[in-house]
Amino acid sequence: MKSRKFPCKPIVYDPSKPDDPYWKNPLITNNFLDVTSWKNKRNGAICGGVADTRLINFKVADNILAGIEFETVVAGDNMARVENALIIGKTENTEDWLNAVSPHGIITPRSENFTVTGAKFYNYDFNKAAALGSCSHCFHPAATDSGSRVVKFEKLFFDTTVKNKIRYQYPFKAIYFDKDGTLTGLGPNTWATWKFKYLLHKECKESETHNGIICDSTA
Predict the structure, then answer these.
(1) Helix/strand/coil (H/E/C) assignment for every residue in the chain
(2) Torsion of CA 89, 94, 97, 101, to 10 degrees
(3) Torsion of CA 40, 43, 47, 53, to 10 degrees
């Protein structure tokens, strides 16, 4: 029997990852599909430290803290995301405990590389309820990151029953990038963030609905 040579390249040791023997493995996409979650005393769905994880066609309603929450993302850009979600703050079949709180539709992570695309929001018109909230778990003393992080949005829909599109959370440093104008109403490649005085330039204006300022594409 003749021996054959296989065209395999040797794996070169990476000194920056001395304890990870799998550093060359490609990421595997995790698709979670068609989940309906309602009346949870916390979140309809929550994800911790995720890589290429995508929640697709989720339907969430009547959740006391958030419909969907992502804590941190450890993968590259355009991987971790929420796609085509239906998010309802309060239905006609609500509970008394929901009337006393102010939930979010989606709470975004305290890290980069997260996208929300195609989400639809309804019935966030009570107390201080809002469609979007920032910096998951940054209020907790064990939070590992509370800096300025960018989250991307596109193809959003807000029903007229959404009083607040955004209610930022501590430390109020999130940067929301609107790829197509469906968050800010200012057109593609625009921005929303907390109202710091040094950001009040001609490119930006205050917006109560957005709990801060929104800036056009020249910012």
Answers:
(1) CCCCCCCCCCCCCCCCCCCCCCCCCCCCCEEEECCEEECCCCEEEEEEEECCEEEECCEEECCCCEEEEEEEECCCCCCCEEECCEEECCCCCCCHHHHHCCCEEEECCCCCCEEEECCEEECECCCCCEEEECCCCCCCCCCCCCCCCEEEEECCEECCCECCCECCCCCCCCEEEECCCCCCCCCCCEEEECCCHHHCCCCEEEECCCCEEEECCCC
(2) 20
(3) 80
Least confident of 17-31, 79-93, 152-166: 17-31
Note the pLDDT tens digit of each residue in 32-55: 999 999 999 899 999 988 999 999
pTM for the structure as a whole? 0.87
What are the C-alpha distances in Å from 18 to residues 15, 22, 27, 75, 80? 5, 10, 19, 19, 26
Using alpha carbons only, give the angle 150, 153, 154 rounded to the nearest 5 degrees.
155
pLDDT over 70, % of the chain: 89
